[in-house]
Specification:
Length: 133
């Protein structure tokens, strides 16, 4: 991703509708609506595995891998990339049926507010990851 120039720190909710809808639709399991938030060539970078490109591929991935997962965003930083796209970095927690993890979501939005990319990064040390199992 491009360099990030932060401009606003937000800790109570997320003011960008697309990002808010991402979390709402993920948490309700409406993955077809989540996938529709991505631009035609939008990319999702899951914490493990290869990049997933395009709405249909993102939908298939979420239906297979995101069942029962809940996302709890806590704090966000907004800004712009060097090319002028909006960028949002959101920290929070993901809970699965088996464990919870602290994560960072890194979103880039195009001028039409579609998601260009969404990268999910696990915020844990290797030792912390080993203690999950």
């Amino acid at each position: 991703m491009e360099n990030f120039v932060p401009s606003t720190l937000q800790s109570e909710g997320i003011n960008e509708l697309t990002i808010s809808r991402y979390f709402q639709t993920m948490n309700t399991g409406e993955f077809h609506l989540t996938a529709e938030l991505f631009g035609e060539s939008g990319v999702m970078y899951p914490p493990c595995g290869e990049a997933v490109v395009g709405g249909e591929a993102i939908l298939n991935y979420l239906e297979k891998e995101a069942q029962g997962i809940k996302a709890y965003p806590r704090q966000s930083i907004t800004g712009n990339t060097a090319s002028g796209n909006s960028r949002f970095q959101v920290t929070g927690k993901v809970k699965t049926p088996w464990f919870g993890l602290n994560v960072l979501w890194d979103f880039a939005l195009g001028e039409n507010k579609e998601i260009i990319s969404a990268k999910v990064k696990v915020l844990a040390s290797p030792k912390g990851l080993l203690s999950i199992g």
